[in-house]
Amino acid sequence: MQSAKQTFGIMDIPLSCSIFLEPALQRYAKNIVPLSRETKQFVHEWNIALVEILNSGRYDAFLGGVGQKILRGSGKSARFVSKCVESARSVPLHSLHYAIRFSESLRYLSNKIGTNKDVKFVDLGCGFSPMTPVMQTEYNLDNVYCIDIPEIIDVYTQVAERVSGRAPHSISWSDAKQMAISQRLDTIIAMGVLPYIDLDTQVSYLKFINYNFPNFLVEIKYNNNAATAGENVFDLQRLQRLRISVEHTETLETTLIRNSLRYLRKFMYAMPGKRYFLANDRSLFLSR
């Protein structure tokens, strides 16, 4: 008899990223950028609204077995999500990723806004992350945008309007490119999205971002061993050919070392028994 396989709908991974974020922010609080009580409360209210909207039945066609399981479990027990982050197979590791991505994005944008109140930013591959609405609400921003597929944006917009009374503007990547060229966008966040895109397309995205966005924070997957690297993962040789200009450094290699060590240090403190990521694919944050 074949064992049952977990099925994924297009909303399952975005749902898990948001739902598991809240307990991850608490569990890994000592390993991430400190967050305000208001931000944590926003995330809490966001997830309540997200679950209510997805439980309406209107989006069942876009939820697979994993998404349905998360919704059922969170409805039955207030402890379900926290228990998953504590001990459910790969969830502790993934949820740490979510917490780092979220807190690093807020830190980066807060620093940019601190020097320029007129920051105009877009979240590429926003999923169901509350990151952009958090920034929009905290700093009362108008020029904030998000990019994702229509089905995701439909839910995302409803949740944002319910929680904060307004939603970031939804645009396409084509729109974003034109806006960047005409200087109507100056900042882009791309966390957890590029590794789902083939390498050649990632390269085209990264080259455009480098030439046309003064400010960027992007996450890619990196492995210094090409033999063990995943399908959409960069090795050092390919990174060197990108010739991306990044902040406070003269070479991409310097940034790779600096950001990798900072990121890996967070993992080692949070999960001292999880050393396998040192020899396998790992996240690299490039910023300017």
Overview of the molecule:
The chain is α/β, with parallel strands linked by helices and 288 residues long. It is 52% helix and 10% strand. The chain has helices spanning 12-19, 21-27, 37-54, 65-76, 80-87, 91-115, 131-139, 150-164, 173-181, 199-212, 236-242, 252-270; strands at 121-124, 144-147, 169-170, 187-190, 215-222, 282-287. It has a 6-stranded mixed beta sheet with strand order 3-2-1-4-5-6. The radius of gyration is 19 Å and the shape is globular.
Strand order, largest beta sheet: 3-2-1-4-5-6
Number of strands: 6
Separation, N- and C-terminal Cα atoms: 53 Å
CA-based gyration radius: 19 Å
The portion of residues assigned to helices is: 40-55%
Pick out the low-confidence regions. Answer: 248-257
Name the beta content range.
5-15%
- The overall average pLDDT, rounded, is 85
The largest β sheet comes out as: 6 strands, mixed
Number of helices: 12
Order of helices and strands: HHHHHHEHEHEHEHEHHE
Sum up the overall morphology in one term: globular
